[in-house]
Amino acid sequence: MAGSRYTYVKGFELPDPLLPSTFFVIRIDGKGFHGFSKAHNFDKPNDWNALTLMNEAAKRVVGGRELNGECVMAFGESDEYSFVFKRSCKLHGRRSSKLVTLVVSVFTAAYVALWPQYFPNSPLKLEELPVFDGRVVQYTNEAEVRDYLRWRQVDTHINNMYNTVFWALVLQGGRTPVEAEQELSGTISSQKQEILFSQFGINYNNLEPMYRKGSLVIWEEGPPTENAPASTDEPSCSPSTSPSPASAQSANSPSTNSTPAPVKMRQRKKPAKPKRRLVVVHEDLISDAWWESGRGKGVLEG
Amino acid sequence: MAGSRYTYVKGFELPDPLLPSTFFVIRIDGKGFHGFSKAHNFDKPNDWNALTLMNEAAKRVVGGRELNGECVMAFGESDEYSFVFKRSCKLHGRRSSKLVTLVVSVFTAAYVALWPQYFPNSPLKLEELPVFDGRVVQYTNEAEVRDYLRWRQVDTHINNMYNTVFWALVLQGGRTPVEAEQELSGTISSQKQEILFSQFGINYNNLEPMYRKGSLVIWEEGPPTENAPASTDEPSCSPSTSPSPASAQSANSPSTNSTPAPVKMRQRKKPAKPKRRLVVVHEDLISDAWWESGRGKGVLEG
Amino acid sequence: MAGSRYTYVKGFELPDPLLPSTFFVIRIDGKGFHGFSKAHNFDKPNDWNALTLMNEAAKRVVGGRELNGECVMAFGESDEYSFVFKRSCKLHGRRSSKLVTLVVSVFTAAYVALWPQYFPNSPLKLEELPVFDGRVVQYTNEAEVRDYLRWRQVDTHINNMYNTVFWALVLQGGRTPVEAEQELSGTISSQKQEILFSQFGINYNNLEPMYRKGSLVIWEEGPPTENAPASTDEPSCSPSTSPSPASAQSANSPSTNSTPAPVKMRQRKKPAKPKRRLVVVHEDLISDAWWESGRGKGVLEG
Amino acid sequence: MAGSRYTYVKGFELPDPLLPSTFFVIRIDGKGFHGFSKAHNFDKPNDWNALTLMNEAAKRVVGGRELNGECVMAFGESDEYSFVFKRSCKLHGRRSSKLVTLVVSVFTAAYVALWPQYFPNSPLKLEELPVFDGRVVQYTNEAEVRDYLRWRQVDTHINNMYNTVFWALVLQGGRTPVEAEQELSGTISSQKQEILFSQFGINYNNLEPMYRKGSLVIWEEGPPTENAPASTDEPSCSPSTSPSPASAQSANSPSTNSTPAPVKMRQRKKPAKPKRRLVVVHEDLISDAWWESGRGKGVLEG
């Protein structure tokens, strides 16, 4: 072939397989989301729609045909999401860069495609698109994977506690950001809760579970719920957001949003073989209880 | 800190730096674009809008602040794009997975965001989003990088020649796909050109350069063109497509497309320091001429 | 410093850590031992002294201060040896090339140093030294490590069975090598045993366990045996070989070899803290029995 | 095959190829040589025999059939040696661990085998064998490789200057080690030379080149010298040491040492195809002169 004199360059493509039989996590992170969230006026300390959009994009990743159902669960908080794969996953020969770029690309595509449903009045700008980077991390056993998820949930808790008090001090308490920062400096968790309660009448433990615990995308046995097409394993584009957390029954409730969706639904042709659907839940992953429960038990085995 | 007992899991994040001082190429590839292009009725053998959309997404990658101007050129054909980085690039500590995921994410985001401008009547479906995977390849010197680009351009040439004759036989010549395949089996380049010319009056060398040579995104010295904001180094969203190749003056000509753009332009605040802009050209990279020309000389040094 | 303008070259030394918490095996292999064993007239199909020398070199690796006692066991056959490390091993930051080169170097040094004791009449030649290469393989759990060792022992069995019959046919049966090869072609294990028994009166299962099962170097609780200094955790150079298998009581029996040893013994100064010593045994690793026995249980945890 | 149920464990052996077309250096380092050199009473600040033994072991590596002549040069100082391979080297598929372990093993074997010729009165002890670890470093062009070697030679210079003055102060000047260290603290090169000259009448620049510049093992065109068999490309074991530097004509001069050598010479059968031999020289690699000279020009191309 005419091109054969150049094909030697293909020899520079080195293999990068993961170790066989490790569990692996692909974690994606929003790049420059501080500025991005400002540009689109995300609510502080948490934006319900922004987080729900993250969850819907994650469901698209987990449930999409690209991953062949081999991602067993995903955990998200703020602008990051962790996708956990079972140890027997053989997708794409377990090539590291192939796997991590696929996850990042599907997530990004879904996030951008779903954006207008969640932020109909704040269109994306080409020069400031939502962008995510990713990495793969391998673990050798279930205990390590559980500790990984606990690590992320402890992070959720610490950040949310701080941000909740910080923004209460600023938005309701009239402090400047600098004053708020100084007031919180050196405080421990219980002191922050006390500030929230005594000064603003807020009981931290009554706040939205999604804010305090992050979001878990998991598979659930059983047929897709009648009125919740968004939770089937072939994701549709029916937005599962709601105008406000107050009116939201669940992250999976059908939307009443009438914004004209640029993303069109496609009718499902063939029924899924194993009946299962994706749900978003907000559970305590730090104690052992959930891991021993019906949903948590065996979840990492897929 | 409460979470410290779990932070050991962070130790499983292994370093993955590229070698210092290599040139490196990040190549992205459309995943399942055979089906995707069918679903959206891409023209055969080439779809002008689809290729222009690829080019615009690539410009967004090369010119975007995420890469800090360290990508010196990009080459695209069909549903793939190769981004070439100068050897002195120190972006993100040259961490492999960070770099490859960033490029894939920016490209995907731009592709999805720009889609409605190029395919206003064929909205994306959530279950079949355009998705790209990526890989990084390192080279030790300029000669190898040039040969890499030649390898891709030879591939462009071979594929386009085949596809052009194949689709002429099918669409204009009334063959079935199987008949066309058999007719082309074993033919060499000159025979394919002869079929094109004798049976369909098509001179292959007069076909669109973009189809025959692929597209090159490069930096050009000088101030951004007045009427071509899309070629500045801070990309805007003014679509540079045209309804048909016949009317297209250049891939950078301002669009007359009046589709309501979901992606909003942002006014540029601060002027770019070094005056340079991105252009899309279609050059012969296989002979040495372009590499010795004004544009090609030193291009890999950034 | 004067040299600082060149220190940038140090930046090309890339990290190569193993994953934390994997079990890992370092397997070394004799390079060109076919020729080497010929040059020194190794007995066929097995050379007692050559195998014992391998075992003694392996004991030096496992028991030496270089590995800090973190190698939990080793398995050898023919000219290869596998060293198994516990998952908690943190030696040298688990740097792959550091670990594999250390093991190879200690093994090679011990093999060469001990050589004159085992082959006093066949001195080494500089141009044909015994040389070993090595590799590191990581496993995620004990079941995989056990299967790794079973894989090597099945290999021992298959090779030894074949070689035993082959050399009986050649050395006692008067066949040429080609005839012997043809005679064995396509035979299964039971047929080979039958040939051995009917033609040569040899019961395969009565052959030396070291030949049939390979050698296992493991730690044993308790004080070093009085008359077996070679099995202490600080290896001495007292050769544990014997002139022939017939007279050998154990691979650890003190040598009666009076060859002037070029390697001098050093008196042990400080007593080992945890009383344990290295022993060489020949066990069936394929069934579960040994793994459940006193010696095998917990052996991989170190 | 009976063993097939275990062969899955082979899948855990991951590929580790070097990038094609890089130059690469394998550097080995003595492990714990501070203690080792004390145990064998190496002369301070430099031991002629110990360094010559390093050089001979390096020649065995470079000239041995294991590396197929693809190592183009080697540089040694103290207890370390760097082996430089040409970019076109395809040995063992450029597998990193294979290459680095081979070099370490050949070096170690040669060092131990040659030891009795250089230290006939100080036999090795099994529990304190000379051991080397190794690493591979890749470079993209000749300039970087030259700078690598300069980096090592600057290191040689700095260490030797310090050690020479330090040991003069201690051995001839009657200082304690602590006093000598304090006296040298903060001094620059010229001050150290001044101390040497004014207090001990030593002109630093007249000291042995091997001590000041390290040793370079390179190939030289032409037939092997009659009386210097050690410099042929098939290394023999004739020791090239000498009792003292004063009487040494060259590192390659035939030894007059009559110690019964445990390593036997083998007669060379077939003549080497390309006539070339290995020599040890002590050159200034920091300035450009040598690199532009007959020996240095093109040396890295092999």
Name of the CATH architecture of chain A = 2-Layer Sandwich
* Number of domain modules of chain A: 1
Using the coordinates shown, work out and report the CATH topology of chain A.
Answer: Alpha-Beta Plaits
- How much of the residues of chain A is beta strand, in percent? 5-15%
Helix content of chain A: 25-40%
Sheet with the most strands of chain A? 6 strands, antiparallel
CATH class of chain A: Alpha Beta
Structural class estimated from helices and strands of chain A: alpha+beta
**Biggest interface and residues each:** A-B, 71 and 71 residues
The end-to-end span of chain A amounts to: 46 Å
Q: Uncertain regions of chain A: pLDDT < 50 for 5+ in a row?
A: 226-261
How would you briefly describe this protein structure?
Chains A, B, C, D: Residues 231-264 have a biased composition (Low complexity). The structure is a homotetramer of 302-residue chains. Chain A is α+β, with helices and mostly antiparallel strands and 302 residues long.
Describe the structure.
Four copies of one chain form a homotetramer. By secondary structure, the first copy, chain A, is an alpha+beta fold. The first copy, chain A, has one domain (16-219, 274-291): Alpha-Beta Plaits, CATH 3.30.70.3000. Helix content of chain A is 35%, strand content 14%. Chain A has a six-stranded antiparallel sheet, with helices on both faces. In chain A, α2 (48-63) crosses α3 (96-118), α4 (142-172) crosses α5 (177-184) and α4 (142-172) packs parallel to α6 (189-200). The first copy, chain A, starts with 22 loop residues before the first strand and ends in a 10-residue tail after the last helix. Mean pLDDT of chain A is 87; it is low at 226-261.
